[in-house]
Amino acid sequence: MPRLFIAIDMSEEIRKHLAELQFGLREARWTKYEQLHLTLRFIGDVSAEKQQDIESALGTVKAAPFDLRLNGLGRFPVRGEPRVLHAVIEDCPPLYDLQKSIEDALEQAGIERDRRRFVPHVTLARFKRTPTFAMLGRYLKTHEHFITSPMRVSEFVLYSSVLSPQGATHTPEAVYKLES
Question: Structural domain of residue 14, as residue ranges?
């Protein structure tokens, strides 16, 4: 059973900027360079037949290319012990429109709508152990002015993911071009 998610890959330029941030927190398990992405929707385990339905449904998504920018760092959850360090995506209405169109297409393929609010971000690290608030606070303060140039989004990708003790392996299953 494939474990699926839909994402926007970060450009090489953005990945380089993000990689420059990946130091200074001992407790962090940093995201691999080639896996830096913005998740549009985690689907989970599905049958091969359901994957075909999903691929077909995603082919109906219509959206024009758009620009997005990363602006700032954050953590999840916002309150309590942090488990994820992430780069924040600047407000981008076309991104929200694309994500909604993907949700609509998935629903047509028989996938239940995600009940959680979409919070666009790029995961930089997950924490093996909770960093001290002082250490994380210093890190966030040091990088508080992090911002990237706009990145052109011209496609999204359906990925399968296999988990192992060494981490996840992501394989692109289908690429969907955005067209004006």
Answer: 3-177
